Amino acid sequence: MKRALALGIAAGSLALSACSSPALALDEPVNAPAPNRIAKEGTGLKTAIFAGGCFWGVEGVFSHVEGVKSAVSGFHGGAAGTASYSRIVSGGTNHAEAVMITYDPYVVRYDELLRIFFSVVADPTLKNRQGPDVGAHYRSALVPMNAEQSAVAKAYLAQMEASGVWNRPIVTKIEKHRKFYTAEKYHQDFMAKNPRHSYITRWDAPKVRALKAMFPGDYRPAFLRDNT
Model confidence at 171, in pLDDT bands (50, 70, 90)? Predict the structure, then answer.
């Protein structure tokens, strides 16, 4: 399903609608297993990239996670010349909509972020789609930024496959880190800026509610806004 484009409206408001119109099917949270492989990343802020369908919801959930210091929507996996929203949604650029997060591993570890991601954000059994959105740019992928994240991600995907929690094969891939391209300004903090948008209320707000219910110790009530 291609995304719907919205009509241009007054200056300063949205020019495009990033994600498809609400569909009838429901996404349900999943109690992903507690990771067996604990991340040991040391001190200092770390960065990781997650792709899991429309970046509005991915950014929205991580912006409510304690220990996350920044969550930026963007594109990963393709070339600079086609790293724009209008080009990516037309297909064939190899980008994935993704979110780059910066976090404090003393507060929330990478393995804990993985569990949150697969519990309330992305369905790891769907290939090149999430929710109502279809296309390779909506694929689910993990992009580790260091050797420890890579080892933890590989171990967790294998654990997920063996867990029996999902009744279909795990198809989420680990992708080699390439340049991350920040998305257009209107995509940043989209959930916080547009809480009544039909896509947000239908698809993404329930993910934040699931985060609060399933991971109360990791939930931050205030949305972490990007100050860049």
Answer: very high
Residue 135: exposure state from Cβ atoms within 10 A (0-12, 13-18, ≥19): buried
Tens-digit pLDDT profile for residues 52-71: 999 999 999 999 999 999 99
Residue among 19, 51, 54, 157 flagged as catalytic = 54
User: Whole-number mean pLDDT of the chain?
Assistant: 89
- Concerning whether 19 is annotated as a catalytic residue, the answer is no
For the domain that residue 165 is a member of, what is the CATH number?
3.30.1060.10
Domain contains 54: yes
User: How many domains does the chain divide into?
Assistant: 1
* Tokens representing residue 155 in the block: 């171990």
- Is 14 a domain residue? no
Note down the domain range covering 54.
Answer: 46-214
Q: What is the DSSP letter of 65?
A: B
